[in-house]
Design brief:
The chain is mainly α and about 140 residues long. The chain is built from seven helices and two strands; from the N terminus they run ααααααββα. Helix 2 crosses helix 7 and helix 5 crosses helix 7. It starts with a helix and ends with a helix. About 15% of the residues have low confidence. InterPro entries: Cyt_c-like_dom, Cyt_c-like_dom_sf.
Length: about 140
């Protein structure tokens, strides 16, 4: 019996060592998410000139001018809502929703309204990335 217990403990220890040595999966960065989800239409620099822009049905927005179009203020909650898939009452919107792709662990985030709201971490990061490329 003791041999079985020792073998099981050894097996668990070995499994733990293998897991510790396995390559860690890197979480997608905001720039990775932008390049995977947005760059085809909005372009690598966010100017609205991506390779799929011509097929989008409407000219993709220049994402470097979001703040300029809003009086110099970056509308965080609006941007995150748009990325997530909320169309703000518009029925047919050529922009796909990315909510399911950005779901996952949440962080408490204040989008400027004073309320700490649980928000998907990747959605916050992508919004902050877009805020960082404003001209």
């Amino acid at each position: 019996m003791r041999a079985v217990v020792m073998a099981a403990a050894g097996g668990l220890g070995l499994a733990g060592l293998i897991a510790a040595c396995a390559p860690e999966q890197r979480a997608a960065s905001a720039q990775d998410d932008y390049m995977a989800l947005c760059a085809d239409c909005h372009g690598p620099a966010g100017k609205g000139d991506g390779p799929a822009a011509a097929d989008a049905g409407a000219t993709p927005a220049d994402l470097t001018r979001i703040a300029a179009r809003n009086g110099g203020s970056f509308p965080r909650a609006q941007v995150m809502s748009r990325i997530y898939g909320y169309t703000m009452g518009r029925g047919e919107d050529p922009m796909p929703s990315f909510g399911d792709l950005l779901d996952g662990p949440t962080v408490l985030y204040d989008a400027g309204d004073g309320l700490q709201t649980p928000t998907p971490r990747r959605l916050v990061a992508l919004s902050e990335y877009l805020e960082g490329i404003q001209e």
